[in-house]
Amino acid sequence: TQLLEQSPQFLSIQEGENLTVYCNSSSVFSSLQWYRQEPGEGPVLLVTVVTGGEVKKLKRLTFQFGDARKDSSLHITAAQPGDTGLYLCAGPSSGTYKYIFGTGTRLKVLA
Amino acid sequence: DAGVIQSPRHEVTEMGQEVTLRCKPISGHDYLFWYRQTMMRGLELLIYFNNNVPIDDSGMPEDRFSAKMPNASFSTLKIQPSEPRDSAVYFCASSPVDRASSYEQYFGPGTRLTVT
Q1: pLDDT value at position B103?
Q2: N or C: which terminus of chain B carries fewer CB neighbours within 10 A?
Q3: Residue B104 has what pLDDT?
Q4: Are A42 and B95 a contacting pair at CB < 8 A?
């Protein structure tokens, strides 16, 4: 069974700090996605990474896909209160459109 | 487009009652997914459809759960009879499917179900 473990589970930081969250698996994924979910809403896709070693930037957010396509990281520079939310990684189960979601990192950025 | 629409947004029911959750996907999307989210188990896929046909229902926890998609613009998830352990937020998502191997799922706002 493919699993995606995220760390840390919870993170509370001050505005302006940098942070990195991780998404790890023992399985290879053809692609990984990162979502952000705010309270009372559904997850919203931030990025999809497809190629091993790929780095994508979305304003202050930097996403990296591991060379072996078993892990990914999300780095936030100068965090803002608007970054608060639940961050989820997700990847397709081998050969299917069935997506597996990670355990999630709950981020709180204090003003 | 209005996005994925789910109803009701909140449902409180008593154990043993039938519960029906509804979803209207984004027009033109080929895939529809039902998920359940709890603090303990996170976001779990229950079932997904392609062109109104159920493809994988291996995530449906028990026979008490059933899902239908009678047409491209409507799907239901039914729980009968409901139990307190079914309390969770249920999400519907749709996808335009990208033949290049990955695709974006558009989630609805969810239905928060409480079974007492």
Answers
A1: 73
A2: N
A3: 82
A4: no
CA B33 to CA B56: how far, in whole Å?
10
Interface test with B, best of A30, A44, A49, A99 (most B CBs within 10 A): A99
Q: What is the pLDDT of residue B2?
A: 81
Mean pLDDT of chain B: 92
Q: Which residues contact B64 (CB under 8 A, 6 or more apart)?
A: B79, B80, B81, B82, B83, B86
Q: How far apart are alpha carbons B20 and B15 in whole angstroms?
A: 14
Averaged pLDDT, B101-105: 71
Instruction: Give A105's strand partners.
Output: A87
The residue type of B10 is H
Chain B, residues 88-107, CB within 8 A of chain A, namely 91, 93, 95, 97, 101-107
> Chain A residue with minimal CA distance to B30?
A97
Residue in B48, B102, B110 closest to A98 by CB: B48
3-class DSSP state of B85: helix
Answer yes or no: is pLDDT of A97 > 90. no
